[in-house]
């Protein structure tokens, strides 16, 4: 819709250190989608982990009331089902690249606050939270690195019979198939979630969507490395 090629990401920007009071943070923009990701380190773990010598990484996700076209009421009580689903996805995506024993008995909470939503907020949250998490881990000066790999996420879909990368809201709402891909820098998948909104899709189409996602993921991993800079230096 905006003149990109089918294999082009929207403009991606990652501004690290966006929230100076947090141990780690960034503002990630993917086109018109903007998410603040922050990491908070606490010297405690959930009760069920006490005494086991390992830590925990969890996440919370929320959209500001006017992040979308219509006002979304604040989550003043229990988060809605979509928010719970996304924050669980973010948490397990980041845990996939963390050595929890190297973390020790600490808990890191990743907060994802959507300032502006135009599709792909969960993917932007995961990609940005990796940067916030890496920055927070640096402050701990652990004896053994806790990060085992990088992780990022991107959306893909089929619209008009063509595979597209990084769908905006309007494209996503019209897509015959939409899919979110979460993968590590080593090329392993954390989650592949694909839904047919119209005709079912076949294996060849799914393979093409995965190939399309890989193009975008390579760029996202590079953007993460650029944002982290000296933190990732040996």
Automatic annotation (TrEMBL):
An example Gene Ontology molecular-function term: 3'-5'-RNA exonuclease activity
Chain sites annotated for binding phosphate: 82, 120-122
Keywords tagged on the record: Nucleotidyltransferase, RNA-binding, rRNA processing, Transferase, tRNA processing, tRNA-binding
UniProt-listed Enzyme Commission number(s): 2.7.7.56
Catalytic activity: tRNA(n+1) + phosphate = tRNA(n) + a ribonucleoside 5'-diphosphate
One Pfam family hit: RNase_PH
Matching InterPro entries: ExoRNase_PH_dom1 (IPR001247), ExoRNase_PH_dom2 (IPR015847), ExoRNase_PH_dom2_sf (IPR036345), PNPase/RNase_PH_dom_sf (IPR027408), Ribosomal_Su5_D2-typ_SF (IPR020568), RNase_PH (IPR050080), RNase_PH_bac-type (IPR002381), RNase_PH_CS (IPR018336)
Residue ranges occupied by any Exoribonuclease phosphorolytic domain in the UniProt entry: 9-136, 150-213
Any single biological process term in GO: tRNA processing
Enzyme class: transferase
HAMAP family: RNase_PH
Function comment: Phosphorolytic 3'-5' exoribonuclease that plays an important role in tRNA 3'-end maturation. Removes nucleotide residues following the 3'-CCA terminus of tRNAs; can also add nucleotides to the ends of RNA molecules by using nucleoside diphosphates as substrates, but this may not be physiologically important. Probably plays a role in initiation of 16S rRNA degradation (leading to ribosome degradation) during starvation.
Assembly behavior: Homohexameric ring arranged as a trimer of dimers.
Annotated family: Belongs to the RNase PH family.
NCBIfam families per record: RNasePH
Protein name: Ribonuclease PH
Organism: Armatimonas rosea
Taxonomic placement: Bacteria, Bacillati, Armatimonadota, Armatimonadia, Armatimonadales
């Amino acid at each position: 819709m905006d003149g990109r090629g089918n294999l082009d990401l929207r403009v991606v920007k990652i501004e690290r250190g966006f929230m100076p009071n947090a141990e780690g943070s960034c503002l990630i923009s993917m086109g018109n989608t903007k998410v603040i990701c922050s990491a908070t380190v606490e010297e405690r773990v959930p009760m069920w982990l006490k005494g086991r010598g390992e830590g925990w990484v969890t996440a919370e996700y929320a959209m500001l009331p006017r992040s979308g076209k219509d006002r979304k009421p604040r989550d003043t009580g229990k988060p809605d089902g979509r928010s719970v689903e996304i924050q669980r996805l973010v948490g397990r995506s980041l845990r996939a690249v963390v050595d929890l024993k190297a973390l020790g008995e600490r808990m890191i909470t990743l907060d994802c606050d959507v300032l502006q939503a135009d599709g792909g907020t969960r993917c932007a949250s995961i990609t940005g939270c990796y940067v916030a998490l890496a920055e927070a881990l640096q402050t701990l000066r652990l004896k053994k690195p806790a990060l085992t790999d990088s992780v990022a996420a991107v959306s893909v879909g089929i619209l008009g019979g063509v595979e597209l990368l990084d769908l905006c809201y309007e494209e996503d709402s019209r897509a015959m198939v939409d899919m979110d891909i979460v993968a590590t820098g080593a090329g392993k998948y954390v989650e592949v979630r694909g839904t047919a909104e119209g005709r079912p899709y076949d294996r060849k189409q799914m393979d093409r969507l995965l190939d399309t996602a890989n193009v975008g993921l390579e760029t996202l991993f590079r953007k993460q490395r650029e944002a982290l800079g000296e933190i990732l230096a040996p």
